Amino acid sequence: MNVSTEEIYIAGTYNRYPIKVSHAKGIYVWDKDGKSYIDTFMGIGVLLFGHNHEKIIYAMKRKMEKYVHLSNFFLDEDALFVAQRLVEETGRYGKVFFTNSGAESTECALKVVRKVKKTGKILSFVRNFHGRTLSALSVTGFENIRSQFINDENVVFLPYDYETVKRFLEEEKHIAAVFLEVVHGSGGLDVIPQEIVQLVSDYKKEHGYLIIADEVQSGLGRTGKFYAYQYFSIQPDIVTVAKGIGGGLPLGACIMLEEYADVFKTGEHGSTFAPNPLALAAGRAVLEMIDDHLLNHVVKTGKYFEERFSNLGDVLGIGLMRGLKLKLSVDSKWIERFINQGLLVNILANGVVRFLLPLNITREQIDEVYKRFCEVVEC
Q: Which of 344, 329, 342, 332 is nearest to 377 (CA)?
């Protein structure tokens, strides 16, 4: 039996796609044989403006010529720009703690929760995804990836069922926090029902719990709002972001709002690498391109995507955070069929095809995705 070098030296935690990447640009990825593929999930939502966007790459290069790393004994001016924009988009007072990932942003949020609420249940929802580090995993609503590592008796997972959620909020006396992912990412691209959000908001005053809005995948314009929670009547206490904010480099943020903005004192939290100067430069470039014009474009092209693909099954999600539940049953074994037609797709465990197309995608490019998709599923 032939054993690859990867199998010898790299932990077997991923299923690789059977292509060797040469380079990438825009919506396209090329293999070493020169064949091109359309990337429909952009590094799992990381590349908001496609591969190797000129402005983002230029910003990285300029910063690299100055320095690559400093440490948090020094303040990078891009950190001020990024933090101010992230806070201002909430329309409230707040402060940012920078992280390297969505999981780290969740860890920060949990640390805030447990500093101000030493006891009490934490409510999360089935199929919420908040990260794979141990504490982040404790609030992630996937039992199959969580149970063998941690089962925190203080964390409760509920389905999107009005009566079930209402009963819990009425009967549970001590609730410390509620985690929301208003558009499920790994969970299948379904949108949280408005009545569930309203319950969480209504009972907040009675319980005094913190509301954490996970915007790691849905934030930064992906849905047509800067933050997806802005589609709902809710005011989170903490907002977590990551993925697209670093332009392809590791960067995240834990945005602590109002009374929780100053919870951390000197030395109570920290990071060696976050925020990395190159990631901050890329983040600034990303944020400078997110404006009302772009958000309107996301709304319009998201609707066009829905119209284009609706004949194939149920189109889920909002804006350009989309899922397709096909009329026929598909699973990860279909990935190679799509690859043979020059399409890189992400099929979730529940059979939903997840689309995280770049925010600047055109209708013509969506048409090309549809065309190649149909060569596999026979529209």
A: 329
- Backbone φ, ψ for residue 237 (5° rounding): -90, -25
Q: For strand 121-125 and strand 155-158, is the pairing parallel, antiparallel, or unpaired?
A: parallel
Encode pLDDT of 250-284 as tens digits.
999 999 999 999 999 999 999 999 999 999 999 99
Per-residue tokens: 23 = 């380079």
Please answer whether residues 351 and 329 qualify as being in contact, where contact means their C-beta atoms are separated by less than 8 angstroms: yes
Beta-bridge partners for 353: 324, 347
Each residue's pLDDT tens digit, 307-358: 999 999 999 999 999 999 998 888 778 899 999 999 999 999 899 999 999 9
**Single-letter residue type at 63:** K
**Domains of the chain by range and CATH?**
5-53+291-377 (3.90.1150.10), 56-289 (3.40.640.10)
Strands annotated E in 27-174: 28-31, 36-39, 94-99, 121-125, 155-158
Q: Tell if the pTM clears 0.85, that is, is over it.
A: yes
User: How many angstroms separate the CA atoms of 215 and 181, rounded?
Assistant: 7
